[in-house]
Each structure stands twice: as C-alpha cells, then as structure tokens.
Design brief:
Elements lengths: L1 E7 L2 E7 L5 E5 L6 H11 L2 E6 L11 H8 L3 E4 L9 E3 L4 E4 L2 E7 L8 E5 L2 E5 L2 E2 L2 E2 L9 H11 L8 E4 L9 E2 H7 L8 H9 L9 H10 L4 H9 L4 E2 L1 H8 L7 E4 L3 H6 L6 E2 L5 H8 L7 E4 L5 H11 L5 E4 L3 H6 L10
Bound molecules: fe (ii) ion.
Amino acid sequence: MILEQFRTGGCLSYLVGCEQRCGALLIDPEISLVDRYLASCSRHGLQIHYLYDTHTHADHFSASRALGRRLEVPVVMHRLSPAPYVDIRVDDGETLIVGNLRLQILHTPGHTADSTCVRVEDCLFSGDTLLIGATGRTDLPTGDPVALYHSLFDRLLKLPRETRVFPAHNYRDQESTTIGTELATNPRLQAGDREAFVALMNGLDLKAPDHLTEALRVNCSGGQSVAQLIAEAADQIAFMSIDEVSARALAPEPGITILDVRETGDYRRAHIPGAMHIPRGQLELRVDAVLPDPTRRIVVYCEYGKISTLATAMLRRLGFSRAVALDGGFRNWREASLPIEGEEA
Ligand SMILES: [Fe+2]
C-alpha cells in the first residue's frame, strides 16, 4: 500500500494507493494542495478513483468537489452529509475497492453526525473522531458528545491496539499514533464513564475555528471560498510589478492607464499619481464611460492586491484585452515610499 500524508496548517490529508494496480483514494483533500496531490499521484504512478471526505469540515476547505469535476472522479461521503455534490453516499459497514485494497467505512458520529473513519490493512484514517492525544470537538453543528463516546469506546478503541491511526488534524509535528498509545495516554479517554466523558467534552470551551462560517458554506454547498475565487482570477490574468508600474506611471509619457478600484474615500486620501478611479462595486456600470478604449493598456490596483485581481479578470472578460493587475497593493506602494497624489500628498 502506498500512503502519503499531506499537511496544511493543522489539517492532514492522505493519498492511499494500491501499488499493484495503481488506483488510489484521496482522503480529506484541501483546496490549496490540489497541485501537490496531482504531482504526488504522478510521482507514485497512481490514478485517483475516489475523493473521500471523512465528514463535513468546519475548518478547512474541501477540494473534493473541484478535484472530482477536474478528474471526473466521484466524491464519497456518509449518507448524512449535507453537501449536494456528493456522488456516492455510503454508510457503516460498506467497503470501497481500490485496486487490491479494501477500504472499510465505519460510521463514527459525534464530532459531526456524518463523521466516518476508513480502515484499510492495519491503518485507520480516523477523521476528527480520534486525534493524537485528543478527540474531535463536539460543540460545532451536529456535534454530539454522547455519540462520540459510543463511537470511540464501542468502536474505535476496540480495534487491535497496534492499529495505526492517521487523524484529520494534528497541530504538533506527529504523523500518526496507535489505538494502544491513545488508550494509554490520551487525556480525553481517561475520563472514565460516559457521563464523565460528556462533562469533559461539554466543558472544553474551545474557540471557534477560523473561517467557520465560510468553510461550512463552501463545504455544504459546493460553492467557492473567496481565496479560491481570487486564485482562479489570478490564473486568468497577468500582473505588473510595482517597480515596473512606478517607472511607467512617473514617466513623462506613461503609455498606461492606472485604475484605482478602492472606495472613494480611500482614493481621495491618497492614490498613485495620475490614477483614474472606479470603485470595484461600480466597475461594470461605469467602465465604458471612463475607459472607452478596450485596447488601452490598463493596470488595476486596490489596497491589498486581491480585489484588483478580481476586477482585472472581469475587465478581461469584458474585452479589455490588455488589462493587468498590480502585483501587490497600494499598501506596498506606500511602504516603498513612492509618490502619491490626494489629500495626504
Ligand atoms: Fe472536523
């Protein structure tokens, strides 16, 4: 069995492949790692057969839908998953066959109602049900500490002690654990009976994960994150460096139109010398009046370089074939102590 672990922040994902028949399952893929997964498949000579999310993630952006579409591969989740893009809904006791591998699905609710684990050979991909020295939290939507107790004590912890456990999260630099190690050392598993475990879980008082609302929106709807939207726009355009723009903008014959898409107050206070202004929210409505020549070379900027990326992609779609975005934002222009115009000048 080929097994590769990927880490982004504290989130872990896994490529599990059959070396004889070259099929693979990708578990809990994260959107920022898509190129790495595909590069890894090429390196190992693997073809992905299934994209598997162990549960509805509240803290990372699943790549399953995007990769599923790109590779024409089905997305697999538990039948209770709210995501409309799931192709194969599975339940406890079912098996996925990938090459010579038999991947057994365990429904282990508690962290979420749709939480599952995947068992193959001596490995358990435990999602957020069992973590290294911890368990998944039960205070997010559909979490249930009683269900988690049963999933842990009646299911996972009854697996052979030498079972290697690969969780969906670990914030320390540790790859895996075993059922035996967790039974002996995991503080959350030492509480005693069910009531004590539930009291422990209910008393954790954890801070909400970053991007909780956005992650649930994206993972439950199959929509896109803002970062994804910006990354896709960036793939459709070209950029111009601050050095290049400043050299051109400050020349006697600029040859470029600089377009500021920030809010009116920001533009009034300070902007790049000679820049025109259309707030991003009015771009499509006012662009023909302000920029009648679609063949004009336009450099678009905003404060951080993100909204300008979206605006430039939109201008390209509208036919402004020479629109590019400033690589960076006005913030970087200021930090470089370049000249400004406006009230603060
Ligand atoms: Fe989770």
